[in-house]
Specification:
The chain is an alpha+beta fold. Helix content is 42%, strand content 16%. It has 13 helices and 7 strands. The protein has helices at 11-19, 24-32, 38-44, 50-62, 84-87, 90-103, 106-109, 115-125, 147-150, 181-188, 194-199, 209-213, 215-218, and strands spanning 66-70, 78-82, 136-141, 151-156, 162-165, 175-179, 203-207. The protein has a 5-stranded mixed sheet. Strands 1-2 form a two-stranded antiparallel sheet. A hairpin with a 5-residue loop joins strand 4 and strand 5 (162-165).
Length: 232
């Protein structure tokens, strides 16, 4: 048993001892979303220290939730994958997100802004289907943020793969997106629309007209964006 055990035989208590330590559910969110490498997991939990991330992964491995395998592409690199027990937690992680989207107020949610997490989420949920069959480069700029977090680039290749850069990749930009982080987060979470933000002049799109017109579609949005807010 872990330190601070509930000391109850109830399965809920026993599961909570494994799953309810700080950052564990959020880390499971990243694993369920498909991240397998340590650095990719870090990008999904940017406020979590590398030491704590390593500790939590080891705990999940001991609990039989995660396994650590050599990468098929590079055996010197290890990947973390959910076991059968871990895969069974996917509906639980989804339920956490659905509950949070429904019952945590918009104002409270938008107090926790995080540019690296937002851009990483946008990168893995972007839908390339309506985009041109060529490389498209979209630059996002959040003018109010410090220089290190102000500009981000999404690179969408013709094969549909998407990469995220926090430094200028050197490609011609097809669409410039300028907005504040709160507005972009609200759009991503389904609390605002691209059209609404444009009308309110909280969002500016410059460049390829078709990319701009289709932004609400290719942006993809959070998997929880479709859930209706029930919190007052």
């Amino acid at each position: 048993m872990t330190q601070g055990s509930y000391r109850q035989f109830c399965p809920v208590s026993m599961a909570a001892e494994v799953l309810c330590t700080r950052w564990t559910i959020v880390l499971l969110r990243e694993l369920v979303a498909g991240s397998t490498r340590f650095n990719d997991l870090r990008r999904g939990v940017p406020r979590m220290s590398p030491a704590l991330l390593s500790q939590r992964l080891k705990e999940l491995e001991v609990a039989g939730i995660v396994r650590r395998d050599p990468s098929m592409a590079d055996p010197s690199v290890h990947e973390y994958r959910l076991t059968l027990a871990g895969e069974e937690l996917a509906p639980l992680v989804d339920a956490f997100g659905i509950w949070g989207q429904r019952w945590i107020s918009t104002e409270l949610s938008l107090q926790n802004l995080d540019a690296p997490l937002l851009m990483w989420d946008m990168r893995r949920n972007l839908d390339p289907t309506p985009m041109p069959k060529r490389r498209s480069t979209v630059q996002f700029r959040f003018p109010e943020l410090p220089p290190i977090q102000r500009s981000w680039w999404l690179l969408v290749d013709p094969d549909g793969s998407v990469d995220l850069c926090s430094m200028d990749p050197g490609f011609n930009v097809d669409l410039f997106v300028s907005t504040d982080l709160r507005t972009m987060t609200a759009i991503w979470m389904g609390m605002e629309t691209v059209a609404g933000a444009l009308r309110a002049e909280r969002l500016a799109l410059t460049g390829d007209r078709q990319l701009a017109a289709d932004m609400q579609t290719w942006l993809g949005l959070s998997p929880f964006a479709k859930e209706r807010k029930l919190a007052s």
